[in-house]
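Journal club prep — side note

Before the paper discussion, L.F. wants everyone to see what a predicted structure for a comparable chain looks like in token form. Sequence:
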Amino acid sequence: MTHRSLSSLSKVAVVATSVLLIAACNKTPTNENTDANATAETGSDLMNRISSGGTINVGTEGTYPPFTYHNEKGDLTGYDVEVTRAIADKLGVKVEFKETQWDAMLAGLDSKRFDMVANQVSLTTPERKAKYDKADAYSWSGAVVLAKKSDSRFNAWESVKGLKSAQSLSSNYGELAEKYQAEVVPVDGMAQAIELVKQGRADFTMNDNLAVLDYLKKFPDSDLEIKLTAPAEEKTGSGLVLRKGDDAVVAKLNEAMQALKADGTLTRLSEEFFGEDISQP
């Protein structure tokens, strides 16, 4: 509603109100807003810790040789673990590993229990790619089918349809088994999966070629063998995985990875755990 005339008192009130409004608009931001702006300018908490030589927290299984496991002395080691330690050295930070079952790994990342995951993670689904970032790959491999030597049913990947596959439900290989329409038998990890196959409670298990080769090398009398191997073009790269949105941290991790490739550290660690360089596709 518009008034065509105002009394002197009304005019004074309007002027006073206008002054207050101008003052409010020019008011210095509160400490809360200032702190928020400062955080945005200086980067994430993780980036700040990396920049200041702090500690990064990394989730890993500790039960998935040769990638992450405990040696005869009880020390946590493995290819992923040692690569992560080498990355931390390049960044000038400390690393603290938090051992977690695979099925709870990404949930722990979501809840910020740790900053990243080092556990042969490949972002193979649109959902994971939309939710997580992965640094440059430090290993390349493909899926294989492991079954009893006497089982002659495996002549093509399509032949696993309807067969029982022992898999961790949320793993890449669990997803692959479902893709080929196998009946998934849930397990906590590779060791349990292999036992179910040996006992005849599952027909096969899918897992990483390198992990399976490591198992067969350690247990040549297991009566198991690789039946199917993924073609070269289907190899996937695994690297450190973290929550989406921290591009500066991913860039730092990639810089460290390039340095480890250049100085031969990745090749040395590959040959130590696998006898060949698995850091190249």
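L.F.'s comment for the group: Residues 143-234 form a domain with the D-Maltodextrin-Binding Protein; domain 2 fold (CATH 3.40.190.10). Keep this in mind when we get to the figures.
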